[in-house]
Amino acid sequence: MILSRRSLLAGLSLSGLVAPALAQKAPEPERIPVELFDETLDLPSAVKLGHAHGDVILVEYFDYNCPYCKRSAQDLPALLKAEPDLTYILVNYAVLGLPSVTATKAALAYFQLYGPERYLPFHLALFGLRGPVDGERALSEAERLDGDRQRLTDTANTERTAQWMKQAFTLGNSLGLVATPSYLVGPESYVGGLSLDQKRAAIARARA
User: Fold this and answer.
1) Measured between alpha carbons, how far is residue 110 from residues 17, 54, 74, 156, 177 in Å?
2) Level-2 CATH architecture, domain 21-207
3) pLDDT digits over 104-135, tens only?
């Protein structure tokens, strides 16, 4: 389903949806304005993993209720191991309904309180859950990973968390990201799923 340009995060709910895309054939890369790529890197909600100053930066816009994002998450540890010079950035892009919005609020709270060092295990834990992921399930996983539920709940409901979500949604919309997951690799976007091998090919293309 195509994302409506009129869709807005109003009261942290969405009227539009972004549908997952199959990753059997890699989507064609599309050039993006360099200023939008730079804006993505400057998002306060961007979770930076891997090399702190990698020779290639790969950005993934994802939703915790997207099955193809789940596949992408499963590949992430292997990708980081295979590409030690890669900077990998996760951008929470809550576009698949209210459960995704509430899960993202909890995830951004976890990131604010515990930083990128602890975020990856939490990220993988959420994608390891069966069935829909909402705020309550995300908080339960955070608590299982030694997060403080009350602090997380308070942080999830702050104006800063709401603003972070709106910024990511607005920027993803400006980039034309009409499927989750979608990726930015340098000055190019890939709208739709990428397998591990396809990600490595995109990285090699950026290095060429």
Assistant:
1) 25, 25, 20, 8, 25
2) 3-Layer(aba) Sandwich (3.40)
3) 999 999 999 999 999 999 999 999 999 999 99
